[in-house]
Amino acid sequence: MSNLKSFLPKSSMHLLIASVLAVILSLVSTVAFLKIYANGKQVYHDIIAGNIVWSDQFKSLDYSIVYCFILCFCLFLIPLIYFVNKKSIAKIPMNPSGLFLSKNALICFFLLFYAVSFYFFSGNSSFIYVAILLFITYFVIVCKKTDTMYKEQIFISFIVSLTFSYFAIITLHFVYSFFNPNPSYKLAQILPEVLTLLIWMLQLAIYFYAEHLLSSLTKILMYSSQLILPFITLVLVFGVYQTGSKIELHRSNYTLAIMASIASILFIYTLLLILKHRRIEVSNVWDYICWPSLIPLTIIMLYSTPVYGGFVSDDFHLGEIFMPLQQMLNYGMKLNVDVMSIQGIMGPMYSLVNDYIFNGNLSSINYTFVAFPIIIGTMVVLLIKKLYGSKWAFLFIIFSLPILFESGMNRTYLIIPYVLILFHKNTLSNPVKWVIFYFWMSLIHCLYNPSMGAALTLAFLPLFGLMLYRSIKLKLWSKVFFEHRLLFCSLVVIQLCILAMLFPTLWGTVQFILDNGSANTLAYGISLFSDAQASPDWFPKPFPYDKLNRLLWESIRIGGWVSTLLLFVGVTIFNVKKVISFNREKQTYLMILYCTISIVFLILITGYSLGRLDSGSMHRSGSITFICFAFLIPALYVFFLKNKFNSVAYHIYLIVFAVLLGSVATFGQQQVFRITEKLMQPMLVPDNAIFVNGAKQGIPDVGEGFIAKERWKEMLDFESVLAKMLKEGETYADLTNRTLFYEITNKRVPTFYSADYLAANEEIQEKMIKNLDKEEPPLVFIGPAIRHDGGPASIRAYRLYKWFLERDYVYYQYNSLQFLVSRQRMLETKAYEDTTNAGENELRTIFHQKDLKSLPVAWGRNFKEMRDRFQSSPDNMSLSGSNEIVKEADGSIVTNGNDPYVSFKLDHTVKGKDADFLLIDLNIIGTQEPFQGQLFWNSSNRKGEKYDEDHSFLFNVVGGQLLIPLGSDPDWLRNTHNELRFDIGDKANVKVRINSIQLVRLVK
């Protein structure tokens, strides 16, 4: 035991010094690892396309660096603790302010991060006014009173009552604007602050001259404010639109009735609670808070001014959110069995909000995006109120809610209730209840978001094993059974039935994770070490060097969650020491469990965090950082340290919170909206938008709302084409990633996955093709398309694209819309004649990507990994000609001009579909600057020039193998060919050796 103790820190200072040294050594080791490993290359096992592939970046390096740093820290920390323990560390003398900072360094850092992140997310400056008042108030109270307990109660009364008054004034201001919208009324923008200042002055006056009335004033302010707050719910049906200087009101009577009913219920219930408790003397101000008032506070904090219409976002993301529920309700499809929802059940949840609270059509999507986080946030706030009381619910609303439930954080919404419930003392004390909660919450969480759900489920697995063991050892299951036989059996039967119904969906989710897996993660986004990565323009740049500014940016975006992980490692070690020192306090064991679970979760979520690392965006890594600093770290204090806080000092932290977040927002460079403005800001309608009534024009699912003229015309054209080309019960296929059109036209998705962008590899593409084999759609939507980083469908989903082009489809265009239509349907509808020739050039424009960048390099380098997917063509290619080329004795060739090329002739004419890829094996001799090659081909149907730029590919050339997707050009795929020409850059004295060049066919 004594040997073990020597590896545990003697004190927190010993641990801190060892941790700092471990971080420094880990950074040095990671940099050394980076230099060794940075020259590695990404490995692919399929012809996958994404931004990483186009630029041939080494995405695995991102994950390796993070894991290397974490591993090095853990390996170095224990030995360093051992050596630091041998040193005697004297306490450093400090003045009171320095002592405060040294003891609370973590909290100070947390406050600073909170302020910065709050500003980045919401740009909210309203708190600065209240914060300054609170700061002054605190010191006034401190100077007047000496009793610490009484001082604390007075101060809390000032904080809470003034905050509630501030929000009540904002609500009154909003109600006036609801009936008299006038955005040009400038005085109204400062009115809440002015009135708040007057209330504060009244509080101080009574505090100094009639202190015995202060409790009555607090009671009046709290109760009157809570009676006013419910009417803020009307903000979800504000419906004020501004076009130029013109103001229009468009409010749904249905939604207005719902919101008015909610406001009335909250008002009446609050009034009844106040009447019930009005004569009861309360010990502190927290007891004045009625739970219904927490809902309006949540609305105020989470509300953001909607965009003018539901179609501002792109058709892909909107479609993937709202399409699944439509397919389930209208066509009886099973989720993740007949149609895949890549958003999990989050998408159907958005749809349910839209259907049952708003208009139920696409015009109300803008308000649905605002309401969804409010609804989930409200449930979490009420859960905290139930489990931890009004105080923690109020503090959560003010400080954590605006970050954790910002609309961009929707994938992480369920983490908070999951952890709060499973770590609550009542749940932990009942292993049977804990196991049941864990099982069902994990199931729901995995369905909501597979990445977050799976990571958190696995992180809690050891604790699940412990709880299950305890429940069996203590015979708690049999005890519950004998005490509640009927209830127990009923619940077992109900749960088994639910599991049986959900099993296909669960299995489909597992298959999606396996199919999508690491292949897509290693293909899209941007590598951490890409030249494109830089701190965004809006981020402060305090240093004169870009690399230092980038380091500061990454210390927030990625460093936040990594440093939290390391912090929890240190806290775990320190608490292990307490346990070994015969401290049997249950709270110590719980803290070890909490930190361990958080560590495992943060490690498991690394793939998600770094999977989408966009330049200039917090994105997923930032969202994990915000989870750490706005929830995981504060939860330590909620769960374990709330009884150890110096209460007055704790409220100083709250003041610092408010001052920091307010001052950052006020003096920052961005133009920001305050709370008063975001609640009453009209939706600005651009000049190119019109108000439409979808039902009157044949598209009822669009509803009534503003939409850009071009978008509306496109929808009408699309509906016209479907009416003309499709018979009753038929549907179309999509190669544009515009999933929303399935929702707009109420058509069935025939391909399981709704968008070709999702078909990232063979497994997914083959599933879609299997469905197409059962039902060949007569119509295929091919353009205009939304292209993400995967490129055109002819590359991102090559097998799917090839399936359509090998069948008897012809090109058809209606205004700006482009389609493939089965020849039989074209004859039936007599749409036009001689479509094949007319559409050849258009198909090439849609599907052919001339510049392949480094994609052939990435694929060619991994050809040995993909060899089983290809079949070599039996035809040989012999050198048939050259230009500005000098042949060397060793078989290499040297360019001798600005247009060097070599031509190759096939023994026999080959069909493009039978030889759809070209594999070139070459060596670049000597040191050469990077250059691009170009490949031309001659088609049998070509008229005019033998070679032309439209029928060619550009690509980066490096030594090794290059795999070129010839079939991604419809001209190659649909015709026969007998000759190729390879242009070797445009510079003289480039020396290469072409070892082999052969046509291959993708067969798997």
UniProtKB/TrEMBL annotation:
The chain crosses the membrane at residues 64-84, 104-121, 127-143, 155-178, 190-209, 221-241, 253-273, 285-304, 365-384, 393-416, 436-465, 486-507, 558-576, 588-610, 622-641, 648-668. It comes from Paenibacillus kribbensis. This is Uncharacterized protein. Keywords: Membrane, Transmembrane, Transmembrane helix. The lineage of its organism: Bacteria, Bacillati, Bacillota, Bacilli, Bacillales. Coiled coil: none annotated. Signal peptide: none annotated.
